[in-house]
What we know:
This protein is an all-beta fold and 200 residues long. The chain is built from no helices and 31 strands. The two termini are 21 Å apart.
Amino acid sequence: MATTASLEDLPNLVTDCGLIDRPNLVTDSGLIDLPNLVTDCGVIDRPNLVTDCGLIDLPNLVADCGLIDRPNLVTDCGLIDLPNLVTDCGLIDRPNLVTDDCGLIDLRNRVTDCGLIDLPNLVTDCGVIDLPNLVTDCGLIDRPNLVTDCGLIDRPNLVTDCGLIDLPNLVTDCGVIDRPNLVTDCGLIDLPNLLLIVVS
Length: 200
């Protein structure tokens, strides 16, 4: 459960992870000096973000599972190449989606390992992804309030495990949450579309 900072004196924020002092942010991992941000995982240099999971290089995102390169997405299950989607179950080719186990999938209904993905409600391993409310492995992402494992992310003040995060620069355990791209422990949250890339 998230805990708020004992001292919430803007613009200087004292959190569990240390002192967040604009424009230079100091955390337990060292000095976070914008635009170059130094954390435990390395240097976070906009627009290239380095986190524990690897290099997040927008618009090319590199995670543990491989290269996430828009519009081509590479994940653990293989190459996700829009509009043709390649997964472990086979080729997902719009408008007809073919998988190994279920046969022919016709939009808008998609069958995955976790069951039926019926737009606009998407069922994944973690539950139902119902836009604008997105359910991911880390919890419920509900605009404009984002709930993750670290607690409630509520604009304009974001609460994480390390304490109170104040826009526009958000510092979490995994690095910097920088609009419009938000980096959390669970991966990348990319506004206005909440694209959660869960790093296993």
